[in-house]
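Hi all, long-time lurker, first post. I run a small reading group and we've been trying to get comfortable going from sequence to structure in the token notation. Rather than ask abstract questions, I figured I'd post a concrete chain and ask someone more experienced to write out its structure so we can walk through it together at our next meeting. Sequence below, copied exactly:
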Amino acid sequence: MPLKADVTSADLKSIRESALGAADPLGIAADLAEAAEAGRLADPDDAGQALTLAAEIAESRSKLDAALRYASRAVEAYGDRSDGDVVNAKAVRARILFRAGRADEAMAEVEPLRPQLTEYPDAAAYVSAALAAGGQLKVAEEWLTEALRSALASRGEPAEPEGVLFFLLQQRHRVRHALGLQHDQHDNLAEKLETRLANATARAAEAPGDDLLFFPKPEFEAALAKWPALAPAYGADWDEHRAHLERELVRLAGTGRAGLTLLPATVAGLTAFAGGDGDATDPKIRAGYAERIAGGTGQIAWPPERNGACWCGSGLKYKKCCLPRSR
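-- Answer (accepted) --
Happy to help. Here is the structure in token form:
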């Protein structure tokens, strides 16, 4: 089935997660390329991303000629841009060239990307994958080690599993494992941060959290009038409130959570739950209120169909209302 018009960045993410299990992934790749070139993207700047995704899908089915064509068009679509998406597209093209037996061209493509390893989070994965496709895992380990040492010297050891340093540590650790190398201090740090990330993800999956409390417009306005201190948590206006929720739902879906729902909240309900002595602005109070709603009925299932009514109750189609807010 051809893709619909006004394909959004969120749609591209959804396609990336589901295309390989589709009945006709090569058809999806062709549709993505056509959408990019026919102007059927909600944001024309997403053309390079759509074409890169098409290249990866075609590559996964060993259609290397088509994959290389899509990847080359992706790089062209980015023009003079210089950012992480461009690095990823060039690394994908290099990977395809390696797989096609064109190693010299592939190395000429990937070598200039080496300095970007310390600049963009995804660069480590894409560049090392390209080198791995060419049987150059030792080169990948050397590049990642050099980039990691440089980044650590300038930025210090990361305390949290996020950012460029974490991705460098993680990808280097995976490459060294594939090479059968003995663990060093950087491998140990990578495992420590990965464990911390896994634990945080598990905690987030178990707790309903007050972030999914949804106040319909009249209730939202009444809530802010009664408790102005809720603005940082829920947004300064209803548009910001809905955007926050849409982004949070997209993030949770990305961690693997299924069956996501919004928890319709009311001022009266939150007031009653807090009680006479309770403070409705206390995150623990709001989390408890969210847990009560989550245990009952009336939650709003997410996501709706693109052409279905938006979850926020605006009366507009989802694709024209809150879907674009995830960006």
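A couple of things your group might point at:
The beta strands are 213-214, 261-264, 300-301.
The first helix runs from residue 9 to 18.
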